């Protein structure tokens, strides 16, 4: 059996190696090489423990993963012992940069220690703060333009504003979140070509592009 084979192997090994220090050296190098080769695997196993018992990520969460100069946004469809499987969704990041979507992304669990992962739907959060800019020329009625923008954004984001208020109230039981602002916010910035009205509002974390295109 397996034990007998190992015993025979060790007997033969000791018989042919005259100096025991050679054996110790060989085993030392072999152990070091094995440890280096298995480092990522061990870290992924430890990362799995952090993910499962820490509760930072769950299947179904919408997450953003940063890897070098590339960003991936999608939904977690599986968490295994060694990796997180992500289904890439169509987002503003996809539209502006990647120009690809619908891919299956495999993320080693050890990324929780070395890379930044953002969770849009942590602990049941359904909303995320999104922003859109509207350009207005200097000869326009700035006050009227801002009033129109505020009315449109406030009306379309009303349902998500109330949902965000409830979600954050629940989240405050676990985290120290003080004075959360979920109502739409508006800012005006001076540019060389005119004024920029920046509107920020709560929207669906899984479909931010829908409300953005509506507004």
Give a written overview of the molecule.
By secondary structure, this protein is an alpha+beta fold. The protein contains eight helices and eight strands. It has a five-stranded antiparallel β-sheet, with helices on one face. Strands 6-8-7 form a three-stranded antiparallel β-sheet. A hairpin with a 3-residue loop joins strand 2 (70-79) and strand 3 (83-88). Keywords: Membrane, Transmembrane, Transmembrane helix. It comes from Campylobacter jejuni. Its main location: membrane.
Main attributes of the structure:
2 domains; mechanosensitive monoatomic ion channel activity; five-stranded antiparallel beta sheet; three-stranded antiparallel beta sheet; 215 residues; alpha+beta; Alpha-Beta Plaits; Mechanosensitive ion channel; 45% helix; LSM_dom_sf; elongated; SH3 type barrels
Helical stretch tally: 8
What structural class do the secondary elements suggest? alpha+beta
Largest sheet: 5 strands, antiparallel
Query: What is the residue-averaged pLDDT?
Result: 85
Proportion in helices: 40-55%
- According to CATH, the fold-level topology of the largest domain is SH3 type barrels
Strand residue content: 25-35%
Radius of gyration: 27 Å
Brief digest:
By secondary structure, the chain is α+β, with helices and mostly antiparallel strands. It has helices at 2-16, 20-37, 39-54, 92-98, 111-114, 142-156, 158-171, 208-214, and strands at residues 62-67, 70-79, 83-88, 104-108, 117-119, 127-136, 185-191, 194-204. It is built from eight helices and eight strands.
